[in-house]
């Protein structure tokens, strides 16, 4: 199969993720969309790795996974504590830093 | 012997320090300390004078290097004193007349509780003036110059509780500052031209500099001299300076202060010799001031102000002579010395009259005082004869020489300057005779006059005030005051003849100032004759007006000229309209420019940034998603830009 199709898929997934980040209010969903964007990037890396015939992209994908895992740990903790204090997981409610 | 020079300055300086810092425990002896130290300086001056006389005319310059003041690369300012014939003459005049005035002040200021401080200031004045004439470079001279300005400020405003005295002191100081600016610019010009400001090298190489440079330096020096010597256009402070105690007036007018300008010009003779244009301006200033002061002197009823006008006029003679170049330098200094004697005598005489008349200064309230104050009358009368140039007295010799030199200038200039000097001699005779007649002759106008007070005929306080003073009882002054007057009178009588016989003064000063005989279109005898005619005319006119008929106790309205002269020829009005108003307008327009332009730029840019940031602030709305949109938008833009660049 033509590897370019994987790139199209990656772009599609990234767009879906980005749209979700921008339009959804629920912090958990926004978080999942971020994960979606990260994985779309991973897919693109791996595809390029295959297309160029070297392993650089695959290694970067591993790094991305590690970073994503760490991010999930911290991000979920923040979301949980936010929900505990404000009884809401809406990102629009967390606007304390506004001037 | 050279090492004694510093002692000349140190003695009065020590007196000033001790008296001003010593506090009240010196009140009892302060005046004697001041007088002794000033006399000590005079004695040192005499010793040095004897030393100088013992040398050849060529070797009569002594210098004493004290310390390096500002040694910075090429800029070398040393504290070095220089004693030559010119400074020696000034030293003797300053310390001699100054000491006599100190002695006089003991009696004059007897009832003033701040007498110790007064003597401290007097000593400071002497020290500053001595530094001025003994300095070996222009920068050190500037120090003395400023010191004289400070001391005159302190002394003119000595009775500072009177607002008029405080104002007069401020005026003198400010007007002098204008002249000081001239001196500082002259010093800077000298440094850029000659690379130094020591007298020796500057005056030696003056001939090498371009005429334009020399003219600029000369004019700046003249500005400085105008300030200190009260020459037109910086003359306005002198009349008001009469607010100070009378000994101060005597000191300022005879021995110190106003002579400094003449000294500066004569000392810088080499510079002026190379700048004929500057010399011409000097003579014009001298000539104008000569008439200006004389006219003002004719109209004043205040005895001290009449004498102040006379000083201005006489200094005008000296400046005129100094502007004539080598034919006049010696005579300028000679007139300065003789003037020092008779003007000090006249002022001390005026002070003595005031002392006996309850500090009344209006000559219309004097009259017939010769019977009550015989010593004052005789000494004042001798000073009077000397200043009008009565044959045989000192003013005759010195003024006559200046008039001769003015004619000898040659050409139309010579005729004009000579004519002005002759006219001045006539007016001098007029106003001095007027002072003499109004004060010492005629009917006493001080009797019975206090009871009538036109402003408040029935007011209680006025009557009480009159009761406290009562009718004045003219009496002769104490001996500390009469002795200096007698000594000065002797000087006024004999000084001129002593200097003139065998051209003693000429030979003494010639090595420093240089001298050349002019070619006068008139013979010396003709000039003397003309001067005598002017003298008789002036005295006669004054006698016709003030001697033959009684002097009215209230000033008549007078002609236009009289009224103008009473107001000092509108000098203050002129200054007010041109300088004060002009200055106000200038500052106002500068303030306007500052407010609109400078503040406009600063405030405008601040307001612009404020408004811009107020709008930009809206972007930060607190919604995380909108930040995310801008981030995505930015990232998209970057990607697009990258792609675009690659495509191109």
Automatic annotation (TrEMBL), chain A:
It catalyses: a quinone + NADH + 5 H(+)(in) = a quinol + NAD(+) + 4 H(+)(out). NDH-1 shuttles electrons from NADH, via FMN and iron-sulfur (Fe-S) centers, to quinones in the respiratory chain. The immediate electron acceptor for the enzyme in this species is believed to be a menaquinone. Couples the redox reaction to proton translocation (for every two electrons transferred, four hydrogen ions are translocated across the cytoplasmic membrane), and thus conserves the redox energy in a proton gradient. NCBIfam families: PRK05715.1-2, PRK05715.1-3. GO terms for cellular component: NADH dehydrogenase complex; plasma membrane. PANTHER family: NADH DEHYDROGENASE SUBUNIT 4L-RELATED (PTHR11434:SF21), NADH-UBIQUINONE OXIDOREDUCTASE SUBUNIT ND4L (PTHR11434). NDH-1 is composed of 14 different subunits. Subunits NuoA, H, J, K, L, M, N constitute the membrane sector of the complex. This is NADH-quinone oxidoreductase subunit K. It comes from Streptomyces bauhiniae. Keywords: Cell membrane, Membrane, NAD, Oxidoreductase, Quinone, Translocase, Transmembrane, Transmembrane helix, Transport. InterPro entries: NADH_UbQ_OxRdtase_chain4L/K (IPR001133), NUOK/Mnh_C1-like (IPR039428). GO terms for biological process: ATP synthesis coupled electron transport. It is a multi-pass membrane protein.
From TrEMBL, chain B:
Residues 69-119 form the NADH-Ubiquinone oxidoreductase (complex I) chain 5 N-terminal domain. Keywords: Membrane, Transmembrane, Transmembrane helix. GO terms for molecular function: NADH dehydrogenase (ubiquinone) activity; NADH dehydrogenase activity. The chain crosses the membrane at residues 6-22, 29-53, 86-106, 118-135, 181-202, 214-234, 246-266, 278-299, 372-394, 414-437, 483-502, 522-544, 627-645. Residues 462-477 have a biased composition (Basic and acidic residues). Residues 448-477 are annotated as: Disordered. Residues 135-419 form the NADH:quinone oxidoreductase/Mrp antiporter transmembrane domain. It is a multi-pass membrane protein. Gene3D superfamilies: 1.20.5.2700. Its main location: membrane. It holds the Pfam family Proton_antipo_M. The keyword Membrane applies. One of its GO terms (biological process) is electron transport coupled proton transport. It is found in: Endomembrane system; Membrane. This is NADH-quinone oxidoreductase subunit L. It comes from Streptomyces griseoluteus. The lineage of its organism: Bacteria, Bacillati, Actinomycetota, Actinomycetes, Kitasatosporales. The gene is nuoL.
């Amino acid at each position: 199969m033509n590897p370019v199709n994987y790139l199209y898929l990656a772009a599609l997934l990234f767009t879906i993720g980005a749209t979700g980040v921008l339009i959804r209010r629920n912090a958990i969903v926004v978080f999942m969309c971020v994960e979606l964007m990260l994985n779309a990037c991973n897919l693109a890396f791996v595809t390029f790795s295959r297309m160029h015939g070297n392993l650089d992209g695959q290694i970067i994908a591993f790094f991305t996974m590690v970073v994503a895992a760490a991010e999930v740990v911290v991000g979920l903790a923040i979301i949980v504590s936010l929900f505990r204090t404000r009884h809401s997981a809406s990102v629009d409610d967390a606007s304390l830093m506004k001037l | 012997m050279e090492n004694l020079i510093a002692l000349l300055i140190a003695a009065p300086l020590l007196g000033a320090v001790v008296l001003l810092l010593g506090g009240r425990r010196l009140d009892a002896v302060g005046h004697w300390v001041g007088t002794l130290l000033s006399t000590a300086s005079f004695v040192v001056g005499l010793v040095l004078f004897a030393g100088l006389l013992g040398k050849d005319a060529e070797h009569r310059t002594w210098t004493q290097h004290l310390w390096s003041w500002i040694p910075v690369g090429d800029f070398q300012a040393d504290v070095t004193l220089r004693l030559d014939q010119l400074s020696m003459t000034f030293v003797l005049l300053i310390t001699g007349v100054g000491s006599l005035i100190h002695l006089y002040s003991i009696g004059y200021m007897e009832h003033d509780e701040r007498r110790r401080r007064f003597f401290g200031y007097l000593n400071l004045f002497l020290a500053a003036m001595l530094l001025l004439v003994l300095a070996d470079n222009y920068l050190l001279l500037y120090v003395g110059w400023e010191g004289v300005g400070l001391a005159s400020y302190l002394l003119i405003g000595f009775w500072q509780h009177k607002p008029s005295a405080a104002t007069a002191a401020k005026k003198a100081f400010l007007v002098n500052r204008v002249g000081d600016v001239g001196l500082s610019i002259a010093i800077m010009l000298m440094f850029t031209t000659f690379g130094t400001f020591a007298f020796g090298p500057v005056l030696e190489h003056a001939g090498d500099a371009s005429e334009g440079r020399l003219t600029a330096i000369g004019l700046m020096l003249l500005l400085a001299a105008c300030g200190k010597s009260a020459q037109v256009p910086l003359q306005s402070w002198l009349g008001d300076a009469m607010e100070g105690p009378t000994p101060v007036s005597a000191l300022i007018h005879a021995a110190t202060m106003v002579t400094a300008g003449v000294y500066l010009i004569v000392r810088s003779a080499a510079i002026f010799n190379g700048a004929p244009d500057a010399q011409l301006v000097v003579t014009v200033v001298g000539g104008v001031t000569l008439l200006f002061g004389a006219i003002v002197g004719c109209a004043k009823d205040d005895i001290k102000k009449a004498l102040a006008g006379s000083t201005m006029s006489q200094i005008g003679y000296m400046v005129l002579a100094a502007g004539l170049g080598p034919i006049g330098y010696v005579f300028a200094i000679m007139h300065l010395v003789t003037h020092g004697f008779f003007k000090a005598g006249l002022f001390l005489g005026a002070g003595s009259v005031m002392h006996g008349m309850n500090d009344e200064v209006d000559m219309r309230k004097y009259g017939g005082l010769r019977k009550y104050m015989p010593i004052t009358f005789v000494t004042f009368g001798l000073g009077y004869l000397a200043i009008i140039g009565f044959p045989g007295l000192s003013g005759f010799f010195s003024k006559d020489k200046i008039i001769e030199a003015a004619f000898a200038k040659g050409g139309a200039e010579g005729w004009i300057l000579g004519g002005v000097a002759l006219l001045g001699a006539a007016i001098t005779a007029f106003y001095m005779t007027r002072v003499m007649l109004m004060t010492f002759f005629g009917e006493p106008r001080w009797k019975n006059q206090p009871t009538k007070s036109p402003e408040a005929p029935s007011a209680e306080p006025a009557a009480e005030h009159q009761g406290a003073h009562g009718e004045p009882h003219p009496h002769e002054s104490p001996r500390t005051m009469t002795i200096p007057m007698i000594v000065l009178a002797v000087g006024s009588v004999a000084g001129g003849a002593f200097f003139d016989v065998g051209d003693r003064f000429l030979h003494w000063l010639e090595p420093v100032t240089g001298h050349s005989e002019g070619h006068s279109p008139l013979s010396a005898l003709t000039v003397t004759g003309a001067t005598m005619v002017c003298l008789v005319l002036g005295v006669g006119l004054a006698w016709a007006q003030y001697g033959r008929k009684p002097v009215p106790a209230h000033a008549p309205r007078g002609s236009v000229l009289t009224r103008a002269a009473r107001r000092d020829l509108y000098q203050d009005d002129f200054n007010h309209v041109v300088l004060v108003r002009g200055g106000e307008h200038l500052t106002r327009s500068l303030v306007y420019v500052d407010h609109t332009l400078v503040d406009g730029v600063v405030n405008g840019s601040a307001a612009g940034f404020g408004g811009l940031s107020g709008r930009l602030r809206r972007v930060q709305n607190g919604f995380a998603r909108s930040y995310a949109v801008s981030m995505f938008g930015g990232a998209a833009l970057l990607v697009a830009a990258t792609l675009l660049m690659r495509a191109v």
